[in-house]
Here is the input.
Amino acid sequence: SDGAALVNWGGGDVQLRFRLYDNYYMLNMSNCEIRVDGIIVVYGEPSVAPGTQVELNVSSLAEGVGHNWTGWCYDDAGNSAERSGIFYVDNTLPFAQILSPENNSNFYDSTPPMSIRVSDNSGKDIAYTVLANGKKNRQGTLKNGTTISFNMNPMSPGNYTLILEAQDVAGNKQNSTPVNIIINRSFVSLLS
Here is the structure.
């Protein structure tokens, strides 16, 4: 059974990568055609060895809508196969915001409270990472447009720069505005 696979990698113009293969005879592939939204983007690919990766760039595709692709090829024995699917173009960075603590806040607790919000044009879930002086403190995944509050993982006394990093499903990343905080040593009072 012959086959052709197509994988999309987003960013700027879209780069389509696909491999041509013949599962049974391992024959060379030729007369390939790839269509995106019904428009031929490559045709008559010269004869190539099985497993060869072919790359092509497609430009001017709308962002945030599904684009249909179809690809088919013939092997040297005249057998053909077709594959199809949908991909999305997403070049827009997600939004990351630290709602609290406020800049230059002081805490006498090693696990200060934090509130964050993330959103993205894709409407999909967004991965987030909270960095304290460049080291991961918390991470997870949030529904698009969600605000969440939590206590940070324990930190030693000192000065910290907090950054929230959001990453959408297309791999686009955006950092929040940094927030500086101070974790002070706890004081114990003895009453007599």
